[in-house]
Each structure stands twice: as structure tokens, then as C-alpha cells.
Write a structure and sequence with these properties.
The protein is an alpha/beta fold. It has one domain: Carbon-nitrogen hydrolase (Nitrilase/N-carbamoyl-D-aminoacid amidohydrolase, 4-Layer Sandwich), CATH 3.60.110.10. Helix content is 25%, strand content 26%. A six-stranded mixed sheet has the order 5-4-3-2-1-14. The radius of gyration is 18 Å and the shape is globular. The chain starts with a strand and ends with a helix.
Length: 291
Amino acid sequence: MARIVKCGLIQTHCELSGNEELDKIKQHMIEKNLKLINDAGRQGVQILCLQELFYGPYFPAEQNTRWYSMTERIPEGPTTKLMQEEAKKHGMVIIVPIYEEEITGVYYNTAAVIDADGSYLGKYRKNHIPHTHPGFWEKFYFKPGNLGYPVFVTAYGNVGVYICYDRHFPEGARILGLNGAEIVFNPSATVAGLSEYLWKLEQPAHAVANGYFVGAINRVGHEKPWDIGEFYGTSYFCDPRGQIVAEGSRDKDELVVAELDFDMIREVRNVWQFFRDRRPETYDEIVDLLP
């Protein structure tokens, strides 16, 4: 009998201006996502991932210390606690991207992972932090992650997390596979004209190279007052063969759902023996040749 796992991705936009009161923005975005989480529950989604920094706009479009007030502790903070209740209510694993405060002044771009019984399993902190393009000033807000590349054993499968800019780095994607990930979720915020041509290239390549499923999430729309470009949605799932099996729209809030056959992982890996044939003893130059 095939091992089918129903998975979901939520893509949304923040129609409120970033000049609004932060509490108003946060409450609005949480309520919007709760409606889609309830929709996922009605459809029987078993593993669900929200988009990067889901309870606000993509505020790294500017450098402003007011956004530090959006941080929360994990798992003690109110958003983690709320999502634990939602996970338990729906019997659903939920990956929850949060702007995390470790201590005052030390902040991370993080995703909390909550199991289907509502228990907190742990967190992933974004390892690769961009500060390269106008409107993507993330080093102003986030320290690089320091928790490695954990894989979370959930009620429905082994889940890895990679966040946005991480997807440009194959090394961590490989470690997630070696750590046992069956599906890797990549909550993102990326705009047309910057990396759109890579959107459907890199992550299917990770899926093929490592023999796992990928769930890629991108927010939608234009966000004011910055309007750094169009967040073009098109969140999708791809399988271990690199084929896109479900895809969202470009311009609307949406829940993307796919039934994924996790037995395909063994089938594909038995054909393409990339883990068997890799030569880690020959790869020292990756870390030796530092710039």
C-alpha cells in the first residue's frame, strides 16, 4: 500500500501598508492565515507550511529598528502557542516561520516545527542571510543560523526546513537529505525579475540530487510602501524526480495541496544511487578553499 501524505503550502500577501501599526498588521496576517489553516484542516492536510515571516510584510525591504518589535521567543511566544493549538485541533504538522528573539538584540529568521499532537519539536534558523540587492537588507535583522540542518521526525514523515535564500546553497540541501529528510519545505519571499528564472530550477534540482520531495512557498502581490517588486506566488510541490506535481497561482492568497507518495523516495533512490556513489573523502576542498 502506497504511503500517501497530504501536504499543503500557504501563500498570502500583506495588503496593509508597512506604515500601519505593527500590532494591527500582525493580527490581520494571523487571522488571514488561520482561515487558510482551517481550510487545510477541512481538506485533511497532514503537513502544512506557512510562508517566510508569515505574520507581516517582507519588512527587510527597508532598514528600520521598529520591526524588531515583531520578534517573539520560540516556543514561549504567542504565535508558537497558537499554532500548537491549531496543530492539535486539526491533527496536522505545521511549519511556522517566525521572527525569533533569542535574547534582546539577537534575532533570527526561524521556523518552528509543531507535530500533529500539538507538541513543539524544535526549530530551524535560516543559515544563509542575504544583503545583496536593494530591498533585501536581511543582515540588518537576522543573525545567521547556528542550529545546523535538523530533520524533524513528525507523525507523518521526516521534515526538513530551508528558508528562502538558503535554496541557493546545495550544501545544506544535501545535509538535509543525509539527515533523513523525506520532504524539505522552503518558505520564501522573492520577487519577479530577481531570481524568478531560478525558482523552478534550483529546488527541483535539490529534489533530484537528494531524492526527496520539496515544498516551495512564495508570497504574492506588491507590498507598500516599498514596492520592491511583485511577489509572484507560484508556490509548488515537486517530487524526487524533479517534476512539479502541484502549483499555486501567481497573484492570490491560496492553499496549495498535493497528495505525495513518500514510497517514491525509495523507488527513485534505488535507481539513482547518488548517496551510495558520493565521495565525501574527495570533497575537502569545499571547506579548504575559503575566500
